[in-house]
Design a protein that fits this description.
Largest sheet: 5 strands, parallel
Distance between the termini: 27 Å
CATH architecture of the largest domain: 3-Layer(aba) Sandwich
Order of helices and strands: HEHEHEHEHEHEHEHEHHEHH
Number of helices: 12
CATH topology of the largest domain: Rossmann fold
Strand content: 5-15%
CATH superfamily of the largest domain: Aspartate/ornithine carbamoyltransferase
Bound molecules: N-carbamoyl-L-aspartate
Structural class: alpha/beta
CATH class of the largest domain: Alpha Beta
Helix content: 25-40%
Shape: globular
Length: 326
């Protein structure tokens, strides 16, 4: 079990980003997730923790694994789950988002899990509804449960019970500029003591990340030997307004994780990817499917992490009057 202080009480009614969470909060999520891990391996994959509660998946962007993961997580906690796939095109200046959410809330919903193309959308929603809000990815801002499951996987694979990442180096590679996964990972990793190197072409590597305490590098080859985990991001073509690099071939040549590059890394380096993978672009198939890969373990852990987050926001909601919790 990860250590959490005896007096600790989870204080957050919403989970909007890892920027808002402390190291103790992160460890508490991990300890809670660890408790839920076993549920998915039982023949009856359910616990009654959220019985009688209603969780709504409000997704304004396409998603397969995150949406299914939240759906299963809520189901395993015995909540009623409603999948509400909304359309971005019907949304004007945030009014429809809040209106949609208020309408959904009026049906007696306890938790809204929201994914939206606009950075800040989850926080905006949290300010306007009385129920709990969990951010499942807002624009280029944060994707907190992805950050949590990535860090949880690192701790698990490195055998670090307390998830103290002091002395560990994690590289995040690729389209840093457009990545909510990178932002959430950076906030969490830094709070737990890791050294983070952001690697990518200069066009996808904004200087602002230095202010978040990261080292920046435009050369993957320069950092390979130093890292304990490498998180390969998908190039977010849908968010690029103009080409950020000359060609896919050039990108793979400079930033692709190939078998050749893997050979130069630590033997037990963790190869991570949030998915969906562009096989052959940012990662070679043999590497994605090889022994260093944690990709499927990340997906499995995502379920326990999301169960923990849903459970904790519900706990905060039931324990405190609405005005005193964030
Ligand atoms: C990520 C996302 O949607 O931000 N994927 C995910 O949640 N599984 C990363 C990505 O789309 O590249």
């Amino acid at each position: 079990m990860a250590k959490t202080k005896k007096t600790y009480t989870w204080p957050h009614r919403h989970v909007l980003g890892l920027e808002d969470l402390t190291a103790d909060d992160l460890r508490h999520v991990f300890a809670t997730a660890r408790g839920f891990e076993a549920v998915s391996t039982r023949s009856v994959k359910k616990v009654p923790a959220l019985r009688g509660q209603v969780v709504v998946n409000l997704f304004f962007e396409p998603s397969t694994r995150t949406k299914s993961s939240f759906f299963l997580a809520a189901s395993r906690l015995s909540a009623d789950v409603l999948d509400f796939t909304a359309s971005m095109s019907s949304e004007k200046k945030g009014e429809t988002l809040v209106d949609t959410a208020r309408n959904i809330e009026a049906m007696g919903v306890d938790v809204i899990v929201v994914r939206h193309g606009r950075s800040g959308a989850a926080r905006q929603l949290a300010e306007h509804v009385g129920c709990a809000v969990v951010n499942a990815g807002d624009g280029q801002h944060e994707h907190p449960t992805q950050g949590l499951l990535d860090i949880y996987t690192i701790g698990q694979r490195l055998g670090l019970d307390t998830c103290d990442l002091t002395g560990k180096t994690v590289a995040i590679v690729g389209d840093i500029a457009h990545s909510r996964v990178a932002r959430s990972n950076i906030h969490g990793l830094k709070k737990l003591g890791a050294h983070v190197i952001c690697v990518g072409p200069p066009t996808l590597l904004p200087g602002g990340f230095e202010a978040m305490g990261c080292e920046l590098s435009t050369s993957l080859d320069d950092v390979l030997e130093r890292v304990d985990a490498i998180n390969m991001l998908r190039v977010q073509f849908e968010r690029l307004t103009s080409p950020a690099f000359p060609s896919a071939r050039e990108y793979t040549h400079l930033f692709g994780l190939t078998t050749e590059r893997l050979k130069r890394m630590k033997n037990n380096v963790l190869v991570m990817h949030p998915g969906p993978i562009n096989r052959g672009l940012e990662i070679e198939s043999a590497v994605a499917d090889g022994p260093n890969s944690t990709i499927l373990q990340q997906v499995t852990n995502g379920l326990a992490i999301r169960m923990a987050v849903l459970f904790l926001v519900h706990q905060a909601q039931s324990a405190e009057p609405a005005a005193s919790v964030r």
